[in-house]
Specification:
This protein is mainly beta. It has one helix and eight strands. The chain has a single domain, classed as Immunoglobulin-like (Sandwich). 3% of the residues lie in helices and 65% in strands. A five-stranded mixed beta sheet has the order 2-8-7-4-5, with no helix packed on it.
Length: 121
Amino acid sequence: MSREYGCAERSLPFFIVELDELVPPRVRAGGEFNHRMVYALCPAAPTQVVSGGLSTRIRFRGEPIFHETEAVYELRPGRWRVDTIVEVPDHAEPGVYAYEIEFASASLRFERGLTFLIEEP
């Protein structure tokens, strides 16, 4: 992975999201979906992790309906796949929703956003 991204020639830490998806992208109220993210991290030192805060939000019609923060979340060196199962409340209204994540540390910051659909029952 280090050779693939030319980590030796980059300003470190270097971070890239290789895959970011919601499966399935259409669910019913009371169902669930998987957020899968594959990332690669070239750290400044071989075994260094990048620690920061991770916030997750779900928005409906632009308004946040769910927000969760992990004060200490670690990005590990190398390539990693992270799967998160998200349960949709039984009372969720049909429509288009946004799933957003934000990571912030002293040396690295990124935001990602995807949409999913809650179908009519």
